[in-house]
Amino acid sequence: MSTLKNIHSSVLSCKKCRLSEGRINAVPGEGNPNADIMFIGEGPGKSEDEKGVPFVGAAGKFLDELLAEIGLKRSDVFITNVVKCRPPENRDPQDDEIAMCWPYLEEQVRQIKPKLIVTLGRHAMNRFLPNLKISEAHGQAKRFKGVGTDKQVYFPMYHPAVALYNGSYRELLKEDMRKIPKLLSMIESV
Ligand code: URA
Ligand code: SF4
């Protein structure tokens, strides 16, 4: 039986794809094992690779700010990525790397059973919701058969890193974030 701890240790020693070659640390993810909300980013960056913890660099600081916007701390939610090892020079993760890493994420979702999966950025969104465009899909919940047999509720958001390069995304991300509490209470009531 695989538990979150087993997944964590498998990730730490994983060499299934080429991303294992350049990493300092694999980054399995962290947070509340009973979280209602899972946040899924793209892949570790430099700081995450150094520390082995997701979203601890500049984008992570902004994610903390976004969480605070709805009264949440990192320890209330579960945070992870579609690939658990840093792509060199922060390039996009490639399809085969995402595919090799997918069983870990799938198992994390099965174990945590979140009420809501928030995807951060295009790569995370498209892994669960193929063919959607982030500019159209962000900030809108989608019920979709994803992991497991039941339909799951997804909420795509822009990646918090876009706010670092383009200030107008800051408000957009905050606006989308503020929709989450109501969405969660609607999910809980059905
Ligand atoms: N960007 C991501 O997508 N994930 C991280 O963990 C950090 C930055
Ligand atoms: Fe394994 Fe995923 Fe790291 Fe590739 S990215 S080595 S599949 S943990």
Question: In a nutshell, what does this entry contain?
Answer:
The protein is an alpha/beta fold. Helices cover 44% and strands 14% of the residues.
Description:
- The protein has 190 residues and is an alpha/beta fold.
- It has a single domain, classed as Uracil-DNA glycosylase-like domain (Uracil-DNA Glycosylase, subunit E), CATH 3.40.470.10.
- The protein is built from ten helices and six strands, in the order H-H-E-E-H-H-E-H-E-H-H-E-E-H-H-H.
- It has helices at 4-12, 19-22, 46-51, 58-69, 95-112, 122-128, 134-137, 162-165, 168-177, 180-188, and strands at 30-31, 37-41, 78-81, 116-120, 142-145, 151-157.
- A six-stranded mixed sheet has the order 1-3-2-4-6-5, sandwiched between helices.
- The radius of gyration is 15 Å and the shape is globular.
- The two termini are 30 Å apart.
- The relative contact order is 0.16.
- The model has no long low-confidence stretch (mean pLDDT 94).
- Residues 11, 14-17, 19-20, 26, 83-85, 97, 100-101 line the site of iron/sulfur cluster.
